[in-house]
Amino acid sequence: MRISSLWYSIRQGLKNIRRNFLFSLASIGTIIACLFIFGLFYAVIVNFRSAIKNVEGNISISVFFEEGVTDQQIENIKEQIRTRSEVDTIDFISAEDAWKTFSDKNYDDPEAARETFGTDNPLANCESFKITLKDVSKQADFVQFLQSINGVRKVRSSEYTADSVAAINAFVGYASIAIIGILFLVSIFLISNTITIGISVRKEEIKIMKLIGATNAFVRAPFIVEGVVIGLIGSIIPVVLLYYLYDMVINYVAGRFSILKTLFAFVPAGTLFKTLAPVSILIGLGIGFFGSWLTTKKHLKV
Predict the structure, then answer these.
(1) CA angle, 211 then 213 then 217, to 5°
(2) What are the tens digits of pLDDT across the range 61-90?
(3) Alpha-carbon dihedral of residues 220, 223, 225, 230, nearest 10 degrees?
């Protein structure tokens, strides 16, 4: 397409928006509403997943060794575990550390309890590895692998908790896809209606253009420009609104309910919108482009 043709398409596309101002406004409003809801939903999901990730980090698997196992055998077990891609962290818990943790949790006066037992550690055979996984949904298979290693006496895991977290993650993923899909279709439908009206208004003009040799691309281009501009405007506005709203909400909650800061860490606005802003704009542009392209393909008899 030549520069003159490109400028003509841009001018005509902007004229179409002014010509069908109310319908263009309705399309922009729908995209704003859809992307605003998408942004809210995305913010909730990202913070929810962050919280789930923290929970996953606390779901650990303990591996206990058979009696009489040597330091070299323990090192060999560790190397076998490290080869697994699902392993996130692996820490060695000595018998002394295990006894200290146990006494701290179960005695009112842990120091007195440790002095009573002296050098006679009741958890002398409880050396272990504490392992966390990158994805808790893989815990069952990983536990089977651990149980097959020579020198491993017992594997302790939180099966129910891991299954629950994995199920919640899967549900959130499917719900996200469904909601995004619905919002995308609604936006395309509205833009499609706006473009259809523009085509109807200019039907005679389009016929004349075809008679004098205008190509399909030349006829469609103004409508594509119209849809893209509508999509761009409709995506920028909700991103700006959401940024200030999100920043205001997390600052308010952190200041008003300070106890939440120790229980739940909000994802910073900068981190969240580093992904949300470009994704929202691309979605808006995509909705505008595909909505226009599909409509012109259907309604323009060219």
Answers:
(1) 115
(2) 888 888 777 888 888 888 898 888 888 888
(3) -160
